[in-house]
């Protein structure tokens, strides 16, 4: 015992922890890059480095998942690296690749989506003022962004115009830290570790939401709302942890399950703690009625950040929900499942009904995510192998489809940025048939049309729900899914059967990074609808390690 190393005593398995260590270590190195490199070189170096970190971590996940490595509990029981954890890690890292590409693209918005560096902005403004007497000079718009009069697009040959100010590159370490928090969140084996991971993933997202170059006040308002409501949700979560510790004498999920299945005792603390814990988890997953932040934040945040949040945050949150329900409260499911039936129904109905009334596409996607959260919750409530595999597959499919949709949204531009209003999509098929076709395909996937990933995902979770005796809940899900198809089809009808306005929005030509991100989302949406077997098998590779 005296010769046992500290890492052995703590239960450190570097092979199992490699993806998490790579991402968090890469985030720290990314901060150092911010401090060392000059501004002009940071963006390219940060992008290449961040992509390398994510790809290397993804490779280590695949190698471990295919190498037959045993499931382990590491770091003194704090993290569980099992088959569901590896699938969730692989999903998060795969979704991070197109998210990074959208984040770094500067072809659609000169200088990038995010607020410019103050020094570079001041320098650009000085150049503008110096050349303001020239008819071909540049000006500064009401948002403080340099605008070229001679040619607004990137690569414009306006010799008298100033170069667009460089974007802040802190967004790359922010994204890596958030991603590292997500990896830890869905693999946490005790509630205290889960809370720390929740804060690690949340704080960078609060900052990212407020960094939009255009519509700055809307972006900052979204960040403040997200922060304040997120703080309340975290407080509920932590209070629930305290009550469960008082009940079980431990915050480890397996110990809570043992206490719940043990000798007779008062369950007041158990279910009060679960109720408060659910509030915090459902907030992160955008489950109604804990969704109030979602429409405003989706609309106000920069679109690449919205894509990252909509895809990755939902994966991490539902991964944690699955683990908590299955490992800690699986033996008491009969007592609490009825209440969560009501939550699932409320989420599906709220998302569907309010989605019908939206006139902004990003807000429509937000309410769509609330409805989809209700569908995913059906798989979570099943607490069966079929429910687990169906839910994990749904998270993978939904993530790629959502990233593709929001990438396409970023291409439709009006004079002050993105054309968020649905009227801006009238006649889009005439102006850009490829963009209209890709957007239509992804919207049909959200509606659950066959030969798309959405159909396979809904079939998987609804089948698991039926097999576990939740037929009424599945019927509500089917009805809401059919109603929700209306607001997806409404956009498609506008794109193909409405005349474009003469002075309406234009479609920007995407750069290579946005093109790759959108193509990846569309291709995965198609493949998961046509050949889903491999993904479903990996999703059902094994249960949670208690």
From TrEMBL:
EC number(s) in its UniProt entry?
Answer: 7.1.1.-
Name the catalysed reactions.
a quinone + NADH + 5 H(+)(in) = a quinol + NAD(+) + 4 H(+)(out)
Reading the lineage from the top rank, the first entry is Bacteria
Q: Name one GO molecular function term.
A: NADH dehydrogenase (quinone) (non-electrogenic) activity
Name of this protein: NADH-quinone oxidoreductase subunit N
Identify its protein family: Belongs to the complex I subunit 2 family.
Q: Kindly give the InterPro entries that the UniProt entry links to this protein.
A: NADH-Q_OxRdtase_suN/2, ND/Mrp_TM
What does the record give as the function of this protein?
NDH-1 shuttles electrons from NADH, via FMN and iron-sulfur (Fe-S) centers, to quinones in the respiratory chain. The immediate electron acceptor for the enzyme in this species is believed to be a menaquinone. Couples the redox reaction to proton translocation (for every two electrons transferred, four hydrogen ions are translocated across the cytoplasmic membrane), and thus conserves the redox energy in a proton gradient.
Q: What class of enzyme is it?
A: translocase
Keywords from UniProt, A to Z, are:
Cell membrane, Membrane, NAD, Oxidoreductase, Quinone, Translocase, Transmembrane, Transmembrane helix, Transport
Q: How is this protein situated with respect to the membrane?
A: Multi-pass membrane protein
The cellular location(s) given in this protein's UniProt record come to: Cell membrane; Endomembrane system; Membrane
Against PANTHER family, the record matches this protein to: NADH DEHYDROGENASE
Q: Which NCBIfam families match?
A: NDH_I_N, PRK05777.1-4
Question: Which residues span the membrane?
Answer: 20-40, 47-66, 86-104, 166-185, 191-212, 224-248, 268-287, 307-326, 338-357, 364-386, 392-412, 433-451, 471-493, 514-539
Identify the Pfam families for this entry. Answer: Proton_antipo_M
Residue ranges occupied by any NADH:quinone oxidoreductase/Mrp antiporter transmembrane domain in the UniProt entry: 188-483
Its quaternary structure? NDH-1 is composed of 14 different subunits. Subunits NuoA, H, J, K, L, M, N constitute the membrane sector of the complex.
């Amino acid at each position: 015992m005296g010769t046992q190393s500290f890492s052995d005593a703590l239960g450190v398995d570097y092979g199992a922890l490699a993806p998490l260590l790579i991402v968090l270590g890469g985030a720290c190195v990314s901060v150092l890059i911010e401090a060392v490199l000059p501004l002009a070189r940071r963006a390219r170096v940060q992008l290449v480095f961040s992509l390398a970190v994510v790809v290397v971590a993804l490779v280590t996940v695949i190698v471990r998942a295919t190498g037959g490595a045993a499931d382990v509990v590491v770091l003194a029981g704090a993290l569980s690296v099992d088959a569901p954890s590896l699938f969730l890690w692989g999903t998060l890292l795969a979704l991070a690749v197109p998210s990074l590409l959208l984040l770094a693209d500067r072809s659609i918005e000169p200088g990038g989506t995010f607020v410019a560096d103050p020094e570079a902005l001041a320098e650009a403004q000085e150049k503008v003022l110096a050349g303001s007497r020239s008819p071909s000079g540049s000006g500064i718009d009401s948002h403080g962004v340099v605008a070229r009069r001679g040619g607004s697009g990137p690569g414009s040959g306006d010799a008298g115009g100033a170069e667009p100010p460089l974007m802040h590159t802190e967004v790359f370490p922010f994204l890596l830290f958030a991603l590292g928090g997500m990896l830890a969140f869905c693999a946490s084996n005790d509630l205290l570790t889960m809370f720390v991971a929740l804060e690690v993933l949340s704080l960078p997202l609060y900052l990212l939401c407020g960094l939009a170059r255009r519509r700055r006040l809307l972006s900052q308002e979204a960040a403040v709302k997200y922060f304040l409501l997120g703080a309340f949700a975290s407080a509920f979560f932590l209070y629930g942890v305290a009550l469960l510790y008082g009940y079980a004498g431990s915050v480890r999920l397996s110990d809570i399950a043992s206490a719940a299945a043990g000798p007779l005792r008062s369950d007041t603390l158990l279910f009060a703690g679960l109720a408060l814990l659910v509030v915090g988890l459902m907030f992160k997953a955008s489950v109604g009625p804990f969704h109030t932040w979602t429409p405003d934040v989706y609309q106000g945040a920069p679109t690449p950040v919205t894509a990252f949040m909509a895809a990755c945050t939902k994966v991490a949150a539902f991964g944690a929900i699955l683990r908590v329900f299955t490992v800690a409260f699986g033996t008491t499911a009969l007592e609490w499942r009825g209440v969560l039936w009501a939550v699932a129904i409320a989420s599906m109905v709220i998302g569907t009904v309010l989605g019908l009334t939206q006139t902004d596409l990003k807000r429509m996607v937000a309410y769509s995510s609330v409805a989809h959260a209700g569908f995913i919750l059906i798989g979570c409530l099943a607490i069966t192998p079929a429910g687990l595999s169906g839910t994990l597959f749904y998270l993978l499919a939904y993530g790629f489809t959502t990233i593709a949709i929001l990438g396409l949204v970023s291409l439709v531009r009006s004079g002050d940025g993105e054309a968020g209003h649905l009227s801006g999509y009238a006649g889009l098929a005439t102006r850009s048939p490829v963009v209209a076709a890709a957007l239509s395909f992804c919207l049909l996937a959200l509606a659950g049309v066959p030969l798309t990933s959405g159909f396979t995902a809904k079939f998987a979770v609804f089948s698991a729900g039926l097999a576990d005796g939740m037929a009424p809940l599945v019927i509500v899900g089917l009805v809401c899914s059919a109603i929700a198809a209306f607001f997806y089809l409404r956009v498609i009808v506008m794109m193909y059967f409405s005349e474009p306005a003469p002075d309406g929005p234009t479609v920007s030509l995407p750069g290579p990074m946005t093109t790759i991100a959108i193509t990846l989302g569309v291709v995965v949406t198609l493949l998961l609808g046509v050949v889903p077997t491999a993904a479903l098998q990996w999703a059902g590779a094994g249960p949670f390690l208690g």
